[in-house]
Write a structure and sequence with these properties.
Length: 294
């Protein structure tokens, strides 16, 4: 180039490139000839700036190219090539997305050894769901004794987590209770549902020189179609809490008691040992791509 490039031009180069007739483009060597030793200059300055490879190795060309240029596509399905498209070029891409498991109330899934699904202090669940009806309870995912993701009789999707809290009196047993968060879903419509749950210690950064009683928190949130739909947070507990883990199977589309069958479609179920941030959830909803780390 015979001029400096703007920040915008640099960012857009990978997507749009530059016209060969830009008067300030002195040399354009694409280095994509593939054979021989002659390098062509495709800029407006013309063949005066063609050049040759001196003492090339054998082979001198890599058939895979140095990079792929996206031509057309959607999300993860993209038609690419290592050749730069110039003038009129015919490209075509055919793909199919959207497969899902159709559950009719008579079928479901079970992982008999469900220990791998026992959560630690934080976990997340994801699923694309399209319930046929939303006026009866239907289990989407359930680890009995730990948590349940279900459609309720009120037209909502609900996460319920079973918790244990230590007693302030060591002579007393722990207190068992449930913590839930729920948000509306629509019958017959596919919704991307992501739920987060975490427990822990409330940080104390006030710098007090006096004794400050330790507090503990529970945080639960539910996202529908990439947007935060509801959350239920408690941050003033006097005793720590933990998720209960039972020796049970893991169920898809049915409850542990073989009831509350899900009727509709389910796909892309994921169980995480950490929570997902809002950016990850937004991206999954927009592009159906898997977050980077599992």
């Amino acid at each position: 180039w015979q001029r400096a490039l703007s920040d915008k031009e640099v960012r857009e180069t990978v997507l749009y490139g530059f016209p060969d007739n830009d008067p300030q483009l002195g040399i354009r060597w694409n280095l994509a000839e593939g054979t021989g030793t002659q390098i062509m200059n495709s800029a407006a300055s013309g063949p005066d700036y063609d050049t040759k490879i001196i003492n090339p190795p054998n082979p001198a060309w890599d058939a895979a190219g140095a990079f792929d240029v996206p031509y057309a596509g959607r999300n993860d399905y993209v038609l690419v090539s290592n050749r730069i498209v110039k003038d009129w070029t015919h490209v075509a891409l055919s793909s199919k997305q959207g497969w899902g498991l159709a559950l009719d109330g008579a079928n479901s899934g079970t992982v008999t050894d469900g220990d791998a699904f026992n959560p630690g202090p934080s976990f997340a669940l994801e699923a694309w769901v399209a319930p046929d009806t939303v006026n009866n309870k239907q289990i989407i995912l359930e680890k009995p004794g730990s948590y349940s993701l279900a459609v309720t009789t009120l037209g909502q999707v609900s996460l319920t987590v079973h918790l244990s809290q230590e007693s302030s009196d060591y002579r007393l047993p722990p207190t068992l209770f449930d913590h839930s968060v729920r948000a509306a879903v629509t019958a017959g419509k596919t919704s991307y549902v992501a739920v987060n749950f975490t427990t822990g210690t409330v940080p104390n950064d006030k710098g007090s020189t006096e004794y400050v009683a330790q507090k503990y928190f529970i945080k639960a949130s539910i996202y529908v179609d990439g947007q935060l739909a509801a959350e239920n947070n408690v941050e003033d507990l006097d005793q720590p809490v933990s998720i209960t883990n039972a020796d049970s199977a893991f169920y898809l589309g049915i409850g542990g008691a073989q009831t509350f069958e899900f009727i509709g479609k389910v796909s892309h179920v994921r169980v995480w040992g950490r929570t997902l941030n809002s950016a990850e959830i937004t991206r999954v909803n927009a592009f159906h791509t898997l977050p980077a780390s599992r």
